[in-house]
Amino acid sequence: MKTISIGTILFALILFLNGPLQAAPPASKAPAKGPEKSAEKAPEKEPGTTVPSLGNDHIQSIESPHPPYNSKPPTSGPHVPFVARWGIYNRPIPNELQVHNLEDGGVLIQYDCKDCTEVTQKIESLAKEYFQKSQAADQKSSRYGHLLVAPYPGLDTTIVLTAWGKIDKLSAFDEARIRRFIEAYIGIDHHPNHPE
């Protein structure tokens, strides 16, 4: 019977946990000058800014006392045990309610502007496009229905996008930036026992 050394087992475990070993690309001798610059692209940064998680604790009601949120609008933290129905609202959604929607994989587009009918129409039109996309027959498309649009008085900018642990603040409607945020984070469940 052949025995396997502890070193071999550790190596196999490390390989399994870290993936296959890959050789490093050869180092370039000097940076390219002029129009013959390297065609390599820098890796794209995730959209938005990461906000430290405040956890997933449930509270009994919107009025229940809880520690303050660390962003406005919130991106995680104490929330009620039910969610707002996905859709477009003409009234603000309470923080303690919207956080549960974020935990369930939602993305929120919230705005604070006066006489901004054009901006709200663009936001709502974009949201409706995602709701239609969610109606597709395949399960993968249903994630696109996890979207909320609502006003949020007191923002320090015109539009704020939120997902679990992420926030992006826009001073004007930027369709490409909003789409990139939605595509990156919509439909990702953030319950503590859910494998990511």
Structure description:
- The chain has 196 residues and is of the alpha/beta class.
- The chain has a domain at 49-185: 3-Layer(aba) Sandwich (Glutaredoxin), CATH 3.40.30.
- Helices cover 26% and strands 12% of the residues.
- The chain is built from four helices and six strands.
- A six-stranded mixed β-sheet has the order 1-6-5-3-4-2.
- It is globular and about 35 Å long.
- The two termini are 41 Å apart.
The outline comes out as globular
What is the CATH-assigned architecture of the domain at 49-185? 3-Layer(aba) Sandwich
Number of strands: 6
Strand content: 5-15%
Total helical elements = 4
What's the CATH class of the domain at 49-185, please?
Answer: Alpha Beta
CATH topology name of the domain at 49-185, in short, is Glutaredoxin
Could you say which structural class the secondary elements and strand pairing correspond to?
alpha/beta
Strand order of the largest sheet: 1-6-5-3-4-2
How far apart, in Å, are the first and last alpha carbons?
41 Å
Q: Summarize the main sheet.
A: 6 strands, mixed
Using only C-alpha atoms, the radius of gyration works out to 22 Å
H and E order: HEEHEHEEEH
Low-confidence segments, ≥5 residues, pLDDT <50?
Answer: 1-39
Helix content: 25-40%
pLDDT averaged residue by residue: 81
